[in-house]
Design a protein that fits this description.
The chain has 157 residues and is an alpha+beta fold. The chain has helices at 6-15, 17-27, 44-53, 108-115, 130-156, and strands at residues 58-61, 66-74, 77-86, 89-98, 101-104.
């Protein structure tokens, strides 16, 4: 498995990414929301509105089937987020480029394996309602904001 860039790794560690993602996964797990109770068919406009209400500008990539949050330029970094909703599960991807060079662009599930060890697996959060999804997204975007602050604070000082 590819090693994380040291700046990204440091920011994820300070964020307590593994602990926070594990808590999110545990709160929205398949025991709580079994497969037959998951919200499989979703209204794309409702998802777009949910993301807008959280303060972000989403676009839907029809070819790849994910919601893309408009990238932001922060210091030397271009930072964005993708939200992939499939089969009642949420997969999240942070995209980070430094001066145009890609530093991060993989799903969250790979971060824990890169930070802890290759056997560390955190399951994707699952949702059975729009309310569940809204809570998952609130937590994910809160982590995203904290990650951006930590990453950019690191370079500013």
């Amino acid at each position: 498995m590819i090693e994380l860039d040291s700046k990204i790794k440091e920011a994820l560690m300070k964020l307590d990414f593994v602990g926070r993602y594990r808590t999110l996964s545990d709160n929205f797990n398949s025991e709580r929301i079994p497969l037959n109770n998951r919200l499989i068919y979703i209204d794309g406009e409702e998802i777009m509105e949910m993301i807008r209400k959280l303060g972000y500008s989403p676009q839907f990539d029809t070819k790849e089937k994910f919601y893309k949050i408009r990238e932001e330029q922060v210091e030397n970094y271009t930072i964005g987020m993708h939200v992939i909703l499939r089969d009642g599960m949420v997969d999240l991807v942070w995209v980070v480029k430094e001066n145009g060079k890609l530093l991060l662009g993989a799903p969250w599930g790979t971060y824990s394996r890169r930070l802890v060890d290759s056997s560390c697996r955190i399951k994707k959060p699952v949702f059975g309602s729009y309310e569940d999804l809204d809570e998952i997204l609130k937590t994910a975007f809160s982590m995203y904001e904290d990650f951006k602050k930590i990453l950019c604070f690191r370079t500013a000082h």
